[in-house]
Design brief:
Blueprint: E1 10-17, E2 20-29, H1 32-48, E3 51-61, H2 63-73, E4 77-80, H3 84-97
Parallel strand pairs: 2-3, 3-4
Antiparallel strand pairs: 1-2
Helix pairs in contact: 1-2, 2-3
């Protein structure tokens, strides 16, 4: 009781190189996992000055996750390997705030 459902799991892998760090996310960015992604992202940005998020394995992002990604898009974060569905969600978030050239 109290543990996440298997469908709500998120695997986070860190790939650190001399000049770049990537967080590879696999699963669903929902609930308590949003806070964990926020914590790790902040830590990596503080240490490296920028961050790449590989979303190739992400199947779903809830509204809190989209809000987090909106914040990260405004900073030094690059998103890679978004599915069409995820890319449209992120585009909608970006278009909601402002249009970028």
């Amino acid at each position: 009781m109290g543990s996440p459902e298997p469908d709500d799991m998120l695997r986070i892998s860190t790939i650190e190189r001399t000049d770049q760090v990537t967080l590879r996310l696999e699963g669903r960015v929902v609930g308590p996992w949003v806070a964990e992604v926020r914590r790790l992202s902040g830590s990596m940005i503080s240490r490296h000055g920028s961050l790449t998020l590989d979303l190739g394995g992400v199947s779903f992002i809830d509204s809190d996750g989209l809000a987090l990604f909106r914040e990260l898009q405004q900073g030094q974060v690059i998103f890679l390997n978004c599915s069409t569905f995820i890319a449209e969600q992120l585009k909608g978030v970006d278009d909601h705030d402002q249009h970028r050239d």
